Amino acid sequence: MKFLQKKNILKTAFRTGFFLLVSGMFFLTACKKEILNTSPDVKLAFSNDSIIFDTVFTSLGSATHRLMVYNRSKSKINISDIRLEKGAASDFRINVDGQATFDKHNIEIRGGDSIFIFARVTIDPNNAANPFVVEDKLLFSTNGNSQSIKLVAWGKNAHYILADHHSPGFPSYKIVADSLENVTWTDKKPIVVYGYAVINSYGSLTIDAGTKIYFHKNSGLWVYANGKLTVSGTREHPVVFQGDRLEPYYAELPGQWDRIWIMEGPDGRDNTINNAIIKNGFIGIQAESFFKKNQNKLLLKNVIIENMNGAGILSKTYTIDGQNLVVANCGGYCLALTGGGNYNFIQSTFADYWPYSIRNNPAVLLTNFLKDTNNQPVPSPMHFSLGNSIIYGYNENEFGTGMVSGADSSYYLNYCLIKSNLKMDNPAYFNHILKNKDPKFLDIEKQDYRIDSLSPAIGRGNPAISAAAPFDILGNPRGQAPDLGAYQFVSGQSKKLK
User: Fold this and answer.
1) Could you read off the pLDDT of 312-369 as tens digits, one per residue?
2) Checking DSSP bridges between strand 133-142 and strand 77-84, what pairing results, if any?
3) Residue 374 and residue 440 share a domain
4) What is the pLDDT of residues 7-45, one digit of tens each?
5) pLDDT for residue 86 is more than 70
6) Which of these, 65, 93, 127, 324, could form a disulfide with 473 (CB 3.0-4.6 Å)?
């Protein structure tokens, strides 16, 4: 009997001990799972690096997108703050744990787990105060680490082009005219480009008169090799290329978008830009032979390019013909023709009064070489002519050349007003030059480069040159006494150009 009692006592003790052991192990395990990871190395992972609401609203409406937030660590973390950068002023709202807000604190995620965040935007596309692109950032703070997700929505009723190709070494882009495809952009709606709009090889894009193209930051238009661009503006309804910020502060601010980039093409497949305004970017037009020597031309007529951080026109081994051009206020060059090529410009105004920083470069630069990988010049033929034109600006020398031997090269400036400290008495290069004579532009601060009644440029042009451009950029006839530059002086002309 005593033996059985002892045996029962041992069994009870064993069971109690086993229960306590298991309970202890469970308790320890549970405690271990609840340990909060406070390491500054912990970072969140997301289902997307940005949220783009690509719905084009035609009336007041809302759209919602979902974001997954992952804790990849094995232990629990605490997100101390999830908030919208613009706070209560944002067009966006977030929903975390069923609460619509713009700021949420202390959200815990267990190890290997995740949470949903819903982002919502409400847009009135007919609100004139709206920008084309509405943006904000969703900010996360975890253990001292800051992370962000970009929120993007369309703010006006327009045609939006959103980059959908993302290749290493290339800007993000969308093909808007594929090979053997002919596409037309009309003036029915503004065109808003987010990324690069690409004309593919043997594709073509025509842009109708009056069309307005707005580029987001770092965006542009790319005419790929053998592609074709035709800009068909009129004097009354020019095509406008500019940034997508509409606030008055941005009206004349450089650097808001990237460039129009034009590559080489075959003979007869010329790119043309007629009656256009290109403003407030980094480079107005970059024309270059990239894969092979180009055979086509870039034809420019009645084009204004202004307020570029870099260059108005940058060319590398290309062929350009231009008339009635106004290229003004560029941080690098108004016109930089490099690596050789063939160029003919008449009745044009290159005026560089860049106000934002010191500019050490001339307004117009010509070179007949590019440098190889060893930084050595590789010469290429350069032929340049400029007639009935003006080159002027703040610098003492606004015309420069960089020529090396080994390539047939020439330049000829004929009937021009030029600001320069160079000798210009060699008739092989210069003919009928008005040197360092102030052209007396009407108002350089307002970028009005018409000439006033006392300008020395009046009547100093050669009618044989102006015969190829009998009307100025505004449509005024030049007659038999053409002025220099893109504008013909008209008695009693309006005081306001724009």
Assistant:
1) 999 999 999 999 999 999 999 999 999 999 999 999 999 999 999 999 999 999 999 9
2) antiparallel
3) yes
4) 454 454 445 444 444 444 444 444 455 689 999 989 999
5) yes
6) 324
Q: Are residues 56 and 188 in the same domain?
A: no
CA distances from 296 to 269, 301, 307, 409 (A): 6, 16, 28, 20
State pLDDT tens for residues 55-76. 888 788 889 999 999 999 989 9
**94 is in which domain, residue-wise?**
45-154
114-124 exposure pattern, b = at least 16 Cβ within 10 A, e = fewer: ebebebbbebe
Question: Where is 28: in which H helix or E strand?
Answer: helix 2-33
Whether the Cβ atoms of residue 60 and residue 36 lie closer than 8 Å to each other:
no
> Do residues 417 and 434 make contact, with C-beta atoms less than 8 angstroms apart?
yes
What is the model's pLDDT at position 494?
76
> Are residues 443 and 320 part of one domain?
yes
Burial 278-308 (b: 16+ CB within 10 A, else e): bbbbbbbbbbbbeeeebebbbbbbbbbbbbb
- Joined tokens for residue 67: 């974001």
